[in-house]
Design a protein that fits this description.
256 residues, mainly beta, ten-stranded parallel beta sheet, five-stranded parallel beta sheet, 15 strands, elongated, disordered N terminus
Length: 256
């Protein structure tokens, strides 16, 4: 959070805030490994930011004078690469269930406000929130898998982008500009691949989901003998979701 204030015959200022939340997380069984349980589950799980934290950038500024101008900008970015996978050549034998899952949450919040007054008053207030990242759960060309229970491969990506601006100018000549840009692009992938057979006495389930939203708001107000104002808000929601079974993979499930 940043704030600034200036005043005088000529009052100018630039205030900016930047917040970044990024991570690279991997949970895996490595190449050519063998994992066997006689009566328990085999579970691989990756969790990123399930407590609801967010990249939060807030900036405020005020300027006054015969000629006053202030620039305000906030940038919030949140993205993580979270992956859970079993590498090529691995062998998994489970007495119960096998689970490979990744849950990732990325949230960005940016807010900018400016208050400028003077004979000539000008202000540009901008806010950007950019959210993305990769969320993956995969069996990557394993040798084989056998489970006496169920096989579940699950990927869930949640992206929330919020951008808000509030620009207010007052003077004989007033120019107010407000710009907000919220961009959310979650990528979620779940895949099965084996050079042999993937077999479960129960069900085989592969799921990839992308959740979230993108919200932007821009409010620009100019008050004076001559006033010019432009307020623009843009929101983008661009999910990329993939579920796949690699070529030559053999699946055998006991349940329909």
């Amino acid at each position: 959070v940043t704030s600034g204030r200036s005043g005088g015959l000529v009052g100018t200022g630039t205030v900016s805030a930047v917040a970044l939340m990024a991570a690279d997380i991997d949970t895996l069984i490595n190449t050519n490994s063998t994992v066997t349980t006689t009566s328990g589950d085999i579970t691989l799980l990756t969790l990123h930011n399930q407590g609801g934290q967010r990249a939060n950038a807030n900036s405020t500024a005020a300027a006054g004078g015969l000629a006053a101008g202030v620039g305000v900008r906030s940038d919030a970015a949140a993205y993580a690469d979270a992956q859970t996978y079993v590498n090529s050549g691995a062998i998994l034998n489970s007495g119960r269930n096998v689970g490979v899952a990744t849950y990732s949450d990325n949230t960005g919040f940016s807010s900018s406000s400016g208050d400028v007054s003077g004979f000539v008053a000008a202000g540009s207030v901008q806010s950007f929130s950019t959210v993305g990242g990769n969320t993956e759960a995969e069996l990557r060309g394993i040798n084989s898998l056998s489970a006496n229970g169920n096989l579940n491969v699950v990927s869930r990506a949640t992206n929330d982008a919020n951008a808000y601006t509030d620009a207010s100018n007052g003077g004989a000549i007033s120019v107010a500009g407000a710009y907000s840009n919220a961009y959310a692009a979650p990528r979620s992938e779940a895949s099965l691949g084996s050079s042999g057979t993937i077999q479960a006495d129960g069900s085989i389930t592969t799921v990839a989901t992308a959740l979230g939203y993108s919200i932007s708001h821009a409010d620009g107000t100019g008050v004076g003998f001559a006033s010019v104002g432009s307020s623009n808000a843009y929101s983008y929601w661009r999910p990329d979701v993939d579920v796949s079974v690699a070529g030559n993979t053999r699946l055998e499930a006991g349940d329909d």
